[in-house]
Amino acid sequence: MIEAGNLLAAKFFSVCFGHIAGVKIFPVCIALSAFGAVCAMVYSAARVIHSAAEAGYFPFSSFFSKINPYTKTPVNALVFHWACVVFLMFAPPPGAAFEFLVQFAQYPSWIFYGLSVLGLLIMRRTHTHLPRPFKVFFLFPIIFICVAIFLAVFPFIPSENPDFPSWLPSLAGVCFIIIGLPLWHVLVNRKSQESEIEMAEKAPLEQIIY
What we know:
By secondary structure, this protein is mostly helical.
């Protein structure tokens, strides 16, 4: 099926743009675009790990929150993300298991992408005083949220797959998110409540001092 899709795409580009542009030039441009997207995702994922460690929500926070003094990048978080990617690439056997893993990892990402953009729209309304050095037209995030909703619902529509049910990776992704909720409560919610209690206890002392 994949080979048939590749042949169909190659034939389409060849007919529309000619043999040289459609078969030789455009595939190189697509490969460079994919390479740039992967590079951006690698460093953005490392930044997420670094920010979580800096806030104390990641194990071994003091180690993964460090910034390299020479490169000014979170090298420890980047190496950790690289190790996870290499493990997930070579640990599962090729074929259906690897396809299942790719779909399983991809599904929760779009849920959180949509929630992040929705959160930014809500903050635009509720936190109007915050500086926004970069602002997009209101219609663009709405379209992005609609795409995220579509990608969150469409995988549950049954389709032919000889290896495993088409909805199974998405269901596993939802279960993975649900399993993480207790951990979020312990590491994030409880910690924020403890910090609020500490601030409330210190407030009278600060008033006495000042």
